[in-house]
Amino acid sequence: MSRLIVPSRQADEEGKTLKVTPASAGWKYVGFEVYTLQPGQTLKKDTGDREVCLVLLIGQSHVSTQNGEWKNIGERMSVFEQIPPYSVYIPSGDSYEVEAVTDLELAVCSAPGKGTYPARLIGPEDVGVEKRGAGNMKRRIHNILPEQKPADSLLVVEVFTPEGNWSSYPPHKHDQDHLPEESYLEETYYHKVNPDHGFAVQRVYTDDRSLDETMVVKNGDAVLVPEGYHPVSAPPGYDIYYLNVMAGPVRTWKFHNDPDHEWVMERKKAAKYS
């Protein structure tokens, strides 16, 4: 298995099925965990020096922090319902408790925090929805925590790629701290596949090919993107979902397309309007 793939495991006593830390990933900023909780089961954590975005992937829960409480949040029972999720932003220096009301799949996204912003609910109405791409590069985007919304480090977005389509395409990267042209952002992809016995294909590669991996990604796998371009393909018959978490020294998403493939987008645009 590629060193860039972190597979889901059987839930531990806390309900944790997947864990990525800066130390385990060999980078500095992004942390990512997934928990599956049974009704009535609780998860309690301190945020420490990191800010957190809790994304309710599936199910309903109660969530409380030191200064806020939100009851019976959550709506979708599958990510493939393609409705925006409920999420909760929590600053560093805080704590949170999640109690599952139904079977719950919870993503815990984290990055260094400064305690600048208070905890808040991010409801479906707060999530920006957009269609991106053209032709077989079309995909649906849910901007959960984009750079236009307050946070210290975190950027969080989810993407739905229909069967037979490509996303994160044309291939792009954000591995240089070279603003305003490009920002340095570490990134995780948490993949779900429908039907769940299928797979996605993801490639991660650099210009000099010192990193060049093409991976078969299964339902529940996370992929680490420490650098390089990172396109995703959804095979015929299988819709693909992924949750992206990004963070770096500056909270902005400035990417650079692979010049070998950028022309594809211009061709699609020309075909759309011809």
UniProtKB/TrEMBL annotation:
Keywords assigned by UniProt?
A: Isomerase
Q: Pfam families per the record?
A: KduI
Using the UniProt record, name the top-level EC class of this enzyme in a single word. isomerase
Q: What is any one GO biological process for this UniProt entry?
A: inositol catabolic process
Extract the InterPro entries matched here.
Deoxy-glucuronate_isom_IolB (IPR024203), KduI/IolB_isomerase (IPR021120), RmlC-like_jellyroll (IPR014710), RmlC_Cupin_sf (IPR011051)
Gene Ontology MF term list: 5-deoxy-D-glucuronate isomerase activity; glucuronate isomerase activity
Enzyme Commission number(s) = 5.3.1.30
Say yes or no: keyword Magnesium present: no
Q: What is this protein called?
A: 5-deoxy-glucuronate isomerase
This protein's species is: Paludifilum halophilum
Supply the gene name: iolB
